[in-house]
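re: the backbone from monday

yeah here it is again, tokenized this time
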């Protein structure tokens, strides 16, 4: 048998925390247990402070004078009724993190927790995404920007319909253009379908795509990983390929 590596250790920790229902929030202590390595804290860019102010859950963000386009798009989306998801939403879910981030994640659409808070990826899948981001040595709030194909919750957590995704796509395209990230990670089949018109996440995950010159890595959705823990190994391989673009390696064991 090969010697377990850091990657096996991460998988084991993920499994244990799922079994025990252990707190998986991203405290320094949890991260330390999870990863047995020091947490790499990014020096926030100036705009990061603004992005942090935007992450007050369920509350409209403090206005960011240096990001007027981002904020006016947010305002536009908050009033949007272009598809049938608008009238049933509690909150429009615009984005999380830093609009100047070099790493962007794109998911499907808000679930119940996101609809309630107005922040993407805050439920169980979101917690796993946060741990994946931390394992990548990125800081979720300051070094990533997280958005979805649709900004309003599809009832009963169904996938967005084609016409809903099409109605919402211009907003996401404007977000991608503004963020202009170095790499985009697609979470699951839905963003792969609507951004690239491609089906087959199982086959296509781990293979680089190109979106207007931006390298794009499709990988599994964290909700899928929660249901299929063995697939985490593949997802981690995909994320390591992304880390390599940034010259980052998993923190070494002490
Ligand atoms: Fe508008 Fe997108 Fe919400 Fe539909 S999902 S109402 S297009 S913001
Ligand atoms: N799943 C998604 O795809 N997006 C969210 O924001 C939350 C869960």
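seq for it, each position gets an aa:
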């Amino acid at each position: 048998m090969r010697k377990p590596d850091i990657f096996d250790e991460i998988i084991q920790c993920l499994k244990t925390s799922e079994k025990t229902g252990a707190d998986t929030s991203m405290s320094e202590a949890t991260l330390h247990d999870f990863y047995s390595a020091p947490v790499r804290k990014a020096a926030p860019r100036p705009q990061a402070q603004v992005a942090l102010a935007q992450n007050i859950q369920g509350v409209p963000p403090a206005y960011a004078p240096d990001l007027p386009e981002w904020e006016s798009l947010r305002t536009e989306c908050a009033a949007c009724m272009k598809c049938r998801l608008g009238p049933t939403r509690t909150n429009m879910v615009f984005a999380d993190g830093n609009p100047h981030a070099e790493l962007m994640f794109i998911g499907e659409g808000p679930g119940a927790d996101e609809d309630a808070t107005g922040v993407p990826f805050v439920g169980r899948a979101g917690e796993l995404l946060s741990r994946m981001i931390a394992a990548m040595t990125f800081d979720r709030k300051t070094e990533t920007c997280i958005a979805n194909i649709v900004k309003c919750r599809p009832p009963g957590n169904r996938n967005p319909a084609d016409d809903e995704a099409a109605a919402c796509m211009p907003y996401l395209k404007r977000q991608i253009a503004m963020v202009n990230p170095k790499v985009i990670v697609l979470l699951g089949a839905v963003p792969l379908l609507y951004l690239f018109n491609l089906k087959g996440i199982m086959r296509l995950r781990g293979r680089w795509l190109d979106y207007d010159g931006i390298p794009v890595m499709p990988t599994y959705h964290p909700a899928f990983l929660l249901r299929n823990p063995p697939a985490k190994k593949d997802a981690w391989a995909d994320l390591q390929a992304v880390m390599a673009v940034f010259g980052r390696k998993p923190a070494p064991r002490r």
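The pocket of uracil (ligand 2) is lined by residues 107-111, 114, 120-121, 125-126, 148, 187 (CB under 6 Å). Residues 34 and 80 are 40 Å apart (CA to CA).
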